Amino acid sequence: MDISVVIPLFNEEESLPELASWIKKVMEENNFTYEIMMIDDGSRDDSWKVVEQLQQENPFIKGIKFRRNYGKSAALFCGFEAVQGDVVITMDADLQDSPDEIPELYRMIKEKGYDLVSGWKKKRFDPVLTKNLPSKLYNWTVRRMTGIKLHDMNCGLKAYRKNVVKSIEVYGEMHRYIPVLAKWAGYKNIGEKVVVHAERKYGITKFGFERFVRGPLDLLSVMFISRFVKRPMHFFGILGALIFFIGLAAAAYLGIQKIIQLNQGITGHLITDSPYFYIALTSMIIGAQFFLAGFLGELVSRSSSERNKYQIDIKTFK
Asked: What's the rounded Cα separation, in Å, for the pair 120 and 101?
């Protein structure tokens, strides 16, 4: 199979028929073998009924329905697990991503050898203050921290080589950082393509202001997970040891200073009267706790069997 199109959706009943028809037209014009994987992320409208109707019309449409809303990362994770195409295309269901971009994205993966190609919405039709400016700041920050030179890290329209999506684990809110996850999984040939961005035709955006808080926190999470998830002792252990020995050195200095004073017959204040004693003691305690956290992290690293377990209500394929 040439292409798998993965479409996470939430309350998009109006746009789905037009999107499915558009994708089908593009695939037939280019003689691609394909499947369309629609993941209903707990929609409260009739989106799933629309998916079932579309399946009657097009046997290449497959569907997964969650019992409740888990988020875009969960939808992508389940979609990636199920896909069979050599090239995997992800796009949003709101018609702001154009299926006409699919042939060129496919060629960039198959002919130019990219592992991942991310869309770049160079001209956006989103509100300036609530989306455009925050997006520019966010992308600049991610470029600086990760070294991945993408202008639009969070663009929903992306193309992947099949083994990329089978090698990464997307959970929580990590869909924003899939290129980072791919890079840390060893797939460094990451490209970018300017894509058309259309105005939203139906409904309203599903992302609120909470993304301004989640975005930076998720970035810190993915940076830590990418670098230290299999070796937490390298982070906590080194940091803990450093803090502990700073405290130990300070305590030793106070102790030696007191001994010298006593040998010289100087009776001064008690060591415990000095604020530096408590700073040194606190440093030793905190250092020991960090070291212990690293040790425990080593024991539980990558051992959670429930992290990507979702309650799927209906799956229309084996």
From this structure: 11
Q: What is the pLDDT of residues 158-196, one digit of tens each?
A: 999 999 999 888 877 778 889 988 988 889 899 999 998
Do the beta carbons of residue 38 and residue 79 sit within 8 Å?
no
Strand partners, 35: 4
Order of strands across the sheet that contains 116-120: 190-194, 116-120, 158-161, 87-90, 3-9, 34-40, 61-66, 312-315
Tell me how long the chain is: 318
Q: Give me the residues paired with residue 305 across strands.
A: none
Alpha carbon distances (Å) from 129 to 125, 126, 132, 219, 259? 12, 9, 6, 21, 64
Structure pTM?
0.71
